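Task: complex structure prediction.
Instruction: return structure tokens for all chains below.
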Amino acid sequence: NRTPVTVIGLGAMGRALAGALLDNGHPTTVWNRSIDKAKRLAVRGATVANTVEEAIAASPVVVVCVLDYAVVREILGPLSGSLAGRTLVNLTNGTPKQARETAEWATGYGADYLDGGIMAVPVMIGRPEALILYSGSPGAFGLHERTLGALGTATYLNADAGHASLYDLALLAAMYGMFGGFYQAAAMVGSEKVPAAEFAPMVVSWLNAMTVALPTVAEAMDTGAGADDDSNLQMQAVSFANILSASREQGISTELLEPMQALLNRAIAAQRGGADTPSLIGMLRTDPVSA
Ligand code: NDP
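Output:
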């Protein structure tokens, strides 16, 4: 007796979510603005709703995964009243502030609200390596944990609806830092005709070796203790400047590197001799801006 689930939004991700629910035997109702994207899911057994209202009415759990929060509100806003007594699971990418506002709006209409961050690409959905972070209603997560488990490994953070997107975007920030670094590295060796594919395995093993340092740096950040630094910041700033010089010499843009260099220099200027790697995080703090 699987819980019926509605999936609103059948982009690449919504289709994968609906597919995983069908694979797990959940009666699945789908709705999308462009109805043609529902065809293959219908063949697999999904019920295609003609209206959003019909889609919401079909299931106690309504998953929404569209482009952004503005679209979520555009689609669900006119039908807020019909959300009462249901669990709204919003897997759309957005900010913590948007998630909190949406939680307030949905709970104001009598729905239970869970916000989620999908740490996976569509092909991973339904497999354990697809991590999906949730925050919001603890009762709703407890009730539907097994159902959400059909989508990937469901990890509940806490009752603050904003936390799933905070973690999600923070993890993406780390990912883009890594990708940006790789793009720079590939462009640098590419300037001497080294194929990126030939260089990539070396980058992978280097990055793997370097990630080992992260928990130690993190502990020093948390405790405020100075790092027992084998790699002091002044030394790092000198070699960092060499990365920029070499890039320029090879005809490669330094736009991805300049902000990191500015941060290193600011930390060194602020702390003179005492700057260490963990102190960099403090340099990044600014006052929150309300958008
Ligand atoms: P797609 O671009 O494939 O799909 C976008 C979806 O939003 C479609 O269902 C589209 O409908 C709908 N949509 C956009 N604008 C409107 C509108 N004005 N009114 C109604 N519906 C609208 O994106 P994905 O499915 O890949 O992504 C969906 C969410 O999942 C995003 O928030 C994304 O960040 C997140 N995500 C995606 C990942 C990925 O790798 N794909 C990874 C992790 C998270 P229509 O088909 O009619 O255009």
